[in-house]
Structure to design on (676 residues):
């Protein structure tokens, strides 16, 4: 309780919580805030009333509320639906990595002995694997999986044979995001390491020894006693990761190494208009500022929340 | 043998072991999802466009037989590693050449970028951390903390986008890519000897100061982008380490003896906070390397990342992807080794810990 009161006594924590909650709200209420247009589905909605050949971005006066990107794509609509997309992506990645990493670390520590050293050796090996190499490799493997299933890549579009395999190929393309897979595969190690260290020391404490002496099953000890006592650093890491992973996704989308970040795509789309044809950096501000600010605020929000959580769980770090 | 050399050897031997684990995982992944005739593309020689489908199929079969791609995993793995050790990293269709020479040829460019940003962010990060930590809650500390907060929350690609718009398109001071076309088309082996492959150093050695200036003009933006984030992170950690160090008894004792403040900071506290500041750098070595490649791609700086940009353009290119992966893992491992050694120089406890385990 005292910790909670301290948590709410700092404005940084309030700000973090507020930002995260408002992003969550926007994500949940996206269909109400910016209704989808059946004529132009998806996050990139064509703004009605402009000629298709007229590609220059329109200012917020001409196309409320936030103007359009080059190609008459509604900025506000993309921002709102991008929030849902980003939040989903960040939560997916950080929850999967957290769960896998905590289980891996706790399991290894509980088993102990050479198995523990071996498993942590593997975690360390993964630690020396740069994400960018991971995405290149996973993308290449994914390419060959789809090709095997019968997909054919033709000028950047996947084509399928009209037979049984088509359904599987389409399922693969629609449901598996290589970047998501890569980030899950290559970012669970911090969770495993920190849980491993805590569980290793916790294992020798009296209450665990007592539980073991009572004949409690290993699974029960791990899930009932060890993990609840070792999970708080994982929560902190996960909170910070949500923001970090979304920014990483946008980065990879921006440099064209896969990823489907909507905010990232918005910035790719508007990159030539940061300085417009007539000079002046703020002349076409709506092309890049909204997306930039949203992305930065998203990262800041989760980071502040992570800092706040770490104080909440470990009051000594506050000082 | 002095313990430091023991540590050096022990630590160095850890590299091949990690490499073994990683290559096992990578090849395991490859075997898991690809059938033998796709896997054969790792070893395929340069393909001749005039070959018929039959001839290509015959070539694939030859490769499968030669590298035992139909046999159990351990056998295949050994053949693969053997070919890697021979320096035979495969032919990449998107690069139109062998992978290993392509990687090595582009290494100096990446090294140049990484070197200059390390030279920039490590001293400045330590300096900022020391000053902010020593004067905790002072004006300097507040300034540093807000600047660090800004730098870490700014995604690199957006910073790069803004820098390019401002300093390249707007003002024209700096430029992306590695060197201006007007220089690169005049560089021939006759008038320019390449000693290191780094334009800034080679330019000096060849007495071409205009070339050095041009190279720096192109390095400025990527180096700044790369350094800013790491400067802030290192500074934050150094600050925390300094705050912990400042309260130690030996500092209080030294101050009681009347030692001057400057000497207290730089001769007493500084050496003790270097090792803890580097700990997190070791752990984030992989993301340091990722950062270098990302910045290269954004600024179209033609370093090693050029290979992945080309290999991601839709043509299946397993050789380049695998080659790049192993190359970057080796780079990370060497970086971790170097940082560990640096840490051990300043803190003998790090050395003892490795020797004990």
């Amino acid at each position: 309780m005292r910790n909670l009161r301290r948590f709410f006594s700092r404005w940084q924590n309030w700000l973090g919580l507020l930002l995260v909650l408002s992003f969550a709200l926007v994500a949940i209420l996206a269909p109400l805030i910016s209704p989808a247009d059946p004529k132009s589905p998806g996050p990139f909605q064509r703004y009605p009333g402009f000629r298709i050949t007229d590609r220059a971005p329109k200012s917020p006066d001409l196309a409320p509320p936030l103007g359009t990107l080059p190609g008459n794509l509604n900025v506000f609509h993309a921002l709102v639906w991008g929030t849902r997309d980003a939040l989903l992506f960040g939560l997916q990645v950080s929850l999967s990595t957290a769960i896998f990493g905590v289980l891996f670390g706790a399991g290894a520590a509980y088993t102990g002995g050479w198995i523990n050293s071996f498993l942590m050796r593997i975690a360390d090996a993964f630690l020396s694997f740069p994400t960018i190499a991971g995405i290149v490799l996973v993308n290449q493997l994914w390419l060959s999986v789809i090709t095997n299933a019968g997909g054919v890549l033709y000028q950047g579009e996947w084509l399928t044979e009209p037979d049984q395999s088509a359904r599987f190929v389409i399922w693969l393309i629609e449901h598996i995001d290589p970047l998501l897979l890569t980030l899950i595969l290559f970012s669970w190690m911090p969770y495993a390491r920190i849980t491993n260290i805590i569980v290793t020391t916790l294992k020798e404490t009296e209450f665990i020894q007592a539980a073991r002496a009572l004949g409690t099953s290993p699974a029960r000890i791990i899930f009932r006693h060890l993990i609840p006592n070792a999970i708080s650093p994982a929560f902190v890491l996960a909170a910070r990761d949500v923001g970090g992973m979304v920014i990483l996704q946008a980065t990879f989308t921006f440099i064209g190494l896969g990823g489907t970040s909507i905010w990232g795509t918005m910035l790719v789309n508007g990159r030539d208009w940061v300085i417009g044809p007539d000079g002046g950096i703020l002349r076409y501000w709506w092309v890049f500022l909204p997306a930039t600010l949203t992305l930065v605020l998203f990262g800041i929000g989760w980071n502040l929340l992570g800092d706040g959580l770490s104080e909440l769980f470990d009051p000594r770090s506050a000082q | 043998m002095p313990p430091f050399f023991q540590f050096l050897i022990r630590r160095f031997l850890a590299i091949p072991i990690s490499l073994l684990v990683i290559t096992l995982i990578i090849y395991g992944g490859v075997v898991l999802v690809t059938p033998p005739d796709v896997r054969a593309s790792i070893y395929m020689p340069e393909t001749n466009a005039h070959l018929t489908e039959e001839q290509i199929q015959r070539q694939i079969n030859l490769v499968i037989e030669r590298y035992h791609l139909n046999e159990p995993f351990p056998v295949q793995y050994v053949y693969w590693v053997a070919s890697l050790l021979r320096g035979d990293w495969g032919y990449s269709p998107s690069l139109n050449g062998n992978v290993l020479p392509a990687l090595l040829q582009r290494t100096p460019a990446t090294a140049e970028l990484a070197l200059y940003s390390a030279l920039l962010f490590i001293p400045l990060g330590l300096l900022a951390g020391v000053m902010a930590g020593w004067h905790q809650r002072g004006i300097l500390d507040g300034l540093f903390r807000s600047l660090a907060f800004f730098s870490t929350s700014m995604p690199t690609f957006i910073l790069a986008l803004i820098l390019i718009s401002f300093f390249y398109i707007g003002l024209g001071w700096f430029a992306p890519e590695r060197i201006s076309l007007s220089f690169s088309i005049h560089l021939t082996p006759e008038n320019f000897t390449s000693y290191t492959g780094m334009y800034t150093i080679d330019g000096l050695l060849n007495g071409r100061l205009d070339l050095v200036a041009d190279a720096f003009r192109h390095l400025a933006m990527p180096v700044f982008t790369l350094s800013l984030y790491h400067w802030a992170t290192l500074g934050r950690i150094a600050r925390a380490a300094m705050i912990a160090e400042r309260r130690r008894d030996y500092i209080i004792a030294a101050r009681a003896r009347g030692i001057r403040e400057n000497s207290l900071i730089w001769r007493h506290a500084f050496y003790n906070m270097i090792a803890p500041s580097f700990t997190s750098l070791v752990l984030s070595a992989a993301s340091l390397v990722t950062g270098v490649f990302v910045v290269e791609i954004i600024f179209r700086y033609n370093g090693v990342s050029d290979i992945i940009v080309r290999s991601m353009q839709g043509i299946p290119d397993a050789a380049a992807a695998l080659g790049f992966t192993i190359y970057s893992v080796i780079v990370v491992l060497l970086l971790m080794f170097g940082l560990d050694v640096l840490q051990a120089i300043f803190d003998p406890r790090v050395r003892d810990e490795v020797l004990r385990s």
